[in-house]
Amino acid sequence: MLDLKTLTQAVGDLEEEKVLEILNDFVASKPSEDEGQKAVSACQEGMAVVGELFEKGDYFVGDLIFAGELLTEAISLLKPVIGTGSSAKLGSIVLGTVHGDLHDIGKNIFRSMAEAAGFEVHDLGIDQPVQAFIDKVKAVKPDIVGMSGVLTLALEAMKDTVDGLKEAGIRDSVKIIIGGNPVTKEACDHIGADAFTTNAAEGVKISQGWVK
Amino acid sequence: MSDKLKLYEERMKRLNNAVELKANDRVPIFALVDNWALFYSNSKLKDAKNDIEVDYAAYSKALTDFKFDASAFPAVTWPLRFSESLGGGIYTSHGEMETIQIATGQSEIMPASDYDKLIADPKGYILNTIIPKKHKIFQEGTTEEKFERFANSVGEFLKFVQGRTMLFERYKNEHGLPIVNAVPPMQPADLILDYLRDFKGTMSDIRRCPDKMAEACMALMKLNIINTYAVMPTPLYDRYINIFMHLPPFLKPKDFEKVYWPTFKAYVETFAAQGYKFMILFEKNYEHLYDYLQELPKGCILGMFEEDDLRKAKKALGKNICIGGGMRTNDLAFKTPQQCVDIAKGLIDDLAPGGGYVFSTDKILASMNDAKPECLRAVTDFVYEYGVYK
C-alpha cells in the first residue's frame, strides 16, 4: 500500500531517488486508476510543501526549478496508471511571455506550480503577440491570464496586451496577473493588471484566491 | 597635463578611494548604462553594432550629459556581430526591443554524463565538443570552409575588442571619463549555467552530482586564472576585473557553498593578493549569502547590488566591500524628479558616512523605461552637490 504522506514528504524534500523508488514500486503493484489519482494528488501536495519552504526562505529559485522537473518525472511515471481521464480542475490560466521578451524561466516555474495546484494551464510560450493572447482567451475562456516578462520594456508589452484584451471586449471576463523581475505596484497600475508578483508561489496563491 | 586628463585622475582617485574604503572628497557617481544610451540619443542598436562612431556618439552623450564620475561600459556591451557570425548565440538583439537580451532554454548543450570529460580537459572539451555542437557555422561544409568562417568570427571579435580599447582612450582624452570595465572569463558555475547545462540541467546537477559539478568548476577556474592574465597581465589603477554573477541568487547557501563559493573565493583571492581591483555585479539578491561574502578580501571590491537592502548590505559587508547602487530604476521610471531626489538624499544620509559607498542605479539601464532622463539628471545633480564629505 502506498504511503501517501511519505510520498508528499519526499517530493517536498526534493528527494528524487526516494520519490522514484516509491512510485516504481507503486506502479509495479498494478494499482487502480483511483489509487493512481491519489498518488498524483500526493505529489502535487508535495509541490505545495515546496512552495511553502520557498516562501519561508528555506528554498530558492533553483529548488523550484528542480521541483518542477521532479514533478514532471513523477507524473510521467504515473501516466500509465491514471490513463487519460482528467480530474476536476480548479480553474484555467492562459499564460505567456509577452511580445519582445524571450525569457521563460519564471513563466515555467509558475506553470509547474500552478498545474500542481490544480489549474489547467495553456502556455503560449515566449515572445507572444497581443493577438495570441486574445485568440487563446476567446478560445478557452480562462479564469486568469498570466503575463510574464524580464525586461522593463516588457512592461509596455504587458500594457499593450491588456489594452488589446480591452479592445476585444474580453478584459473583464478574466483576472490578470503579471510576473517577473520588473513588475512593481507602479508598473501594475500603469499596465492595468489585477495583481503582480515576483514570486511564483505567491502568484499561485493569488490565483487560487480568485477561483475559490 | 590637460584639463581632461586632470579630471580623469581626479575621478579615478575618487572611485579608488571609495573602493579602498578610504576618506574621500565626495561620493562617486557611477554609471551602469547600456542600451538605454541608444534610446536616449535616438540611435538604433542595428546601426550602433555596425558603426562604432554611432555607438560612441550615443553612449558618450548619455555618459557625459549627466554628472558621472566613471562608467562601467564604454558602448554596447556585447559583440553582436561576433555572435551573429557564429550563426547566433544566446545573446540576441530582438528587433522589436532594441536591446540585447539572453534567450533562455537553449543552452543545455552538454549532457550531465560528460562532466568527466570537462574535468579532464576543460579547454579541449569546450573547443572540440561544445563549440562545434553549439554553432551552426561548424555544422556544414568542408573543414576548409569551417576554418574560414571561424577566422571571420575571430576577426569580428578582435575588431570589437580593439574598438573598445580605442574608446577607453577617447573617453579619457575627450571627456576625462574613466571606463573601468575589464572583462575576464565568466565564473565557472555561471559558464556551466549559461553555456553548458542551462537552468534545468544546472539545478538538476546540483542535486544529482554536486561533487562532479564542483570539480568541473575547479578545473575551469584554473583556466580562468590563465585567461585573466591574458586579458590583464598586471593590475591597473583604472581597470577593474568585472564579475557578473548569475547563479548564486538562485541557490540556497548550502548549494552555493558546494558549487560556487570555493572557486569564486579562490579566484578573487588570487588576483586581490596582487593588487587587482574588482567590480562585481551582485545581480538580484545576495542577503542569504552575506556570511560568505564578508570573507572576501578587503578594500578591492566595488560591489554593485541590485535587490539587496543596501543599508543592511553596508552593515554586513561594509568593512570589506565598497557598496554600490541604491537608486532603483523603478523609481527613476515612475516617480517625479523631486521624489527621486528625496530617495537619493536618504541613500547618501545612510550610506555615505565613513566612505565605502558609490552612488548608482540598482540595475544596468537597458531600455528607455529604466529611467526618465529628468529623474536621472535630478539625482545625479543632487548627489554631486549633496554627496560632498565635509
Tell me what you see in this structure.
The complex is a heterodimer of chains A (212) and B (390). Chain A folds into two domains: 4-82, Orthogonal Bundle (Methyltransferase, Methionine Synthase (B12-binding Domains), Chain A, domain 1), CATH 1.10.1240; 91-211, Rossmann fold. Helix content of chain A is 59%, strand content 12%. Chain A contains nine helices and five strands, in the order H-H-H-H-E-H-E-H-E-H-E-H-E-H. Chain A has helices spanning 4-12, 16-28, 33-56, 61-82, 105-116, 130-140, 153-167, 185-191, 200-211, and strands at 91-97, 119-123, 144-148, 175-179, 195-197. Chain A has a five-stranded parallel beta sheet, sandwiched between helices. In chain A, helix 2 (16-28) runs parallel beside helix 4, helix 3 packs antiparallel against helix 4 (61-82) and helix 4 (61-82) crosses helix 5. The model of chain A has no long low-confidence stretch (mean pLDDT 92). In chain B, helix 14 (310-317) links the parallel strand 8 and strand 9 (322-327). In chain B, helix 4 runs parallel beside helix 8 and helix 10 runs parallel beside helix 12. The longest helix of chain B has 33 residues, at 143-175. Chain B starts with a helix and ends with a helix. The mean pLDDT of chain B is 94. Chains A and B meet through helix 4, helix 7 and helix 8 of A and strand 4, helix 9 and helix 15 of B.
